[in-house]
């Protein structure tokens, strides 16, 4: 029996595999230190500025990361930044599963949940249509639509792991993230005021803010700025959106096909969700079946937010500023239109169903 020559594979940031002729050298721990220290310092600066001035922390992480994007030319920082943008993202997504249960989703009721699905579908469709109209392609539409419909930067990061940088470059991804962060910050400030002008009840205001503000922290903060009851309602609606992260990422993987853009492979290979989305689902199921202490969930949320902030900051650092500027305003349009559509639909549903 002849011994077969072993095959070795390598992967890029997004876990896409390709055959390699040589065994990849295992990196030593110290090679990750410079990039991780730089990422941690920038993330800490973003968190400090956010606490001091009240700006959205994800937006600050993006801006600081983009300002430091010149470090991507220093090879010594690459291993740590790549590790943060990939592994911190995945761990943060998994921990989000501790923030929602099936009981919370069911508490919405069928009518409100159906209205929420309508809002999400409308935002997704608006982003796809707009992306096609401005020549950005369906991948840009999926990214903007999913981030708008689900949970902002967290969903964008998860979807980008499925899309892959071969089909959507990091510059356009960074511009989309900036658009999502800005739109979410504006919505957090504007939607509670609009709800007051419209004379919404706490339940109606909670639905509007929870269904139309992208980032989870900003949505919940906006809800509680209206009233405690509206904040509680916002939390339930927003967590129901977060629970849809797994199904939408799985459907996106099925529709887009393989990460290199091909449609080959079995149906199982195309529909199989990334492991971190499976982990998100597993944690969600455990959280639904077992009573997890509140302090554990709060700690997990803080860790998740920190990991996602570091992932966003590292991704921005690895983006070339010249390419970001060259991407222009077009990647922002799907985000803007999807945000507007989600607000209009959420407003109508809050008036007619809630």
**Structure summary, number of beta strands:** 2
User: Could you estimate the helical fraction of the residues in percent?
Assistant: over 70%
* Morphology: globular
Largest beta sheet: strand ordering? 1-2
Radius of gyration: 20 Å
Mean pLDDT: 80
Low-confidence segments: 1-24, 258-271
**Biggest β-sheet strands, sense, barrel:** 2 strands, antiparallel
- What structural class do helix, strand and pairing data support? mainly alpha
Number of domains: 1
Beta fraction of the residues?
A: under 5%
Number of helices: 17
**Regarding quaternary structure, how should these chains be classified?**
single chain
Element pattern in H and E: EEHHHHHHHHHHHHHHHHH
N- to C-terminal separation? 70 Å
What does this structure look like?
By secondary structure, the chain is mainly α. It has one domain (31-352). Helix content is 73%, strand content 2%. It is built from 17 helices and 2 strands. It has a two-stranded antiparallel sheet. Helix 6 (137-149) packs antiparallel against helix 7 and helix 8 (170-198) packs antiparallel against helix 9. It is globular. The model is unreliable at 1-24 and 258-271 (pLDDT under 50).
Which labels suit this protein?
single chain, 354 residues, mainly alpha, two-stranded antiparallel ribbon, 2 strands, 2% strand, globular, disordered N terminus
């Amino acid at each position: 029996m002849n011994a077969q020559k072993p095959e070795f594979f390598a992967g890029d940031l997004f876990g896409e595999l390709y055959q390699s002729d040589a065994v990849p050298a295992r990196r030593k721990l110290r090679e990750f230190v410079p990039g991780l220290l730089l990422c941690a310092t920038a993330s800490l600066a973003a968190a400090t500025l956010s606490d001091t001035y009240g700006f959205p922390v994800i937006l600050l992480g993006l801006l600081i990361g983009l300002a430091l994007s010149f470090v991507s030319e220093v090879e010594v920082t690459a291993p740590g930044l790549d590790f943060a943008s990939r592994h911190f993202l995945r761990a943060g997504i998994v921990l989000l599963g501790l923030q929602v249960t099936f009981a919370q989703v069911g508490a919405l009721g069928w009518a409100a949940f159906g209205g929420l699905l309508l809002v999400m579908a409308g935002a997704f469709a608006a982003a796809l249509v707009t992306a096609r109209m401005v020549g950005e392609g369906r991948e840009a539409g999926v990214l903007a639509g999913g981030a708008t419909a689900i949970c902002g930067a967290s969903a964008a990061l998860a979807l980008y792991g499925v899309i892959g940088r071969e089909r959507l470059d990091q510059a356009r991804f960074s511009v989309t993230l900036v658009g999502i962060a800005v739109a979410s910050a504006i919505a957090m400030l504007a939607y509670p005021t609009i709800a007051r002008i419209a004379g919404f009840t706490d339940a109606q205001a909670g639905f509007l803010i929870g269904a139309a503000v992208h980032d989870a922290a900003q949505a919940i903060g906006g809800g509680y700025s209206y009233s405690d009851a509206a904040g509680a309602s916002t939390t339930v609606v927003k967590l129901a959106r977060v629970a849809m992260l797994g199904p939408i990422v799985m459907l996106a993987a099925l529709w887009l096909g393989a990460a290199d853009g091909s449609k080959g492979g079995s149906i199982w290979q195309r529909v199989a969700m990334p492991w971190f989305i499976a982990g998100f689902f597993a944690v969600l199921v455990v959280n639904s079946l077992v009573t997890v202490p509140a302090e554990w969930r709060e700690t997990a949320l803080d860790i998740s937010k920190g990991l996602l902030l570091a992932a966003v900051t590292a991704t921005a650092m690895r983006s070339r500023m010249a390419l970001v500027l060259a991407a222009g305003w077009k990647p922002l349009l799907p985000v803007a239109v999807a945000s507007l559509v989600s607000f209009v639909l959420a407003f109508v549903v809050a008036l007619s169903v809630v």
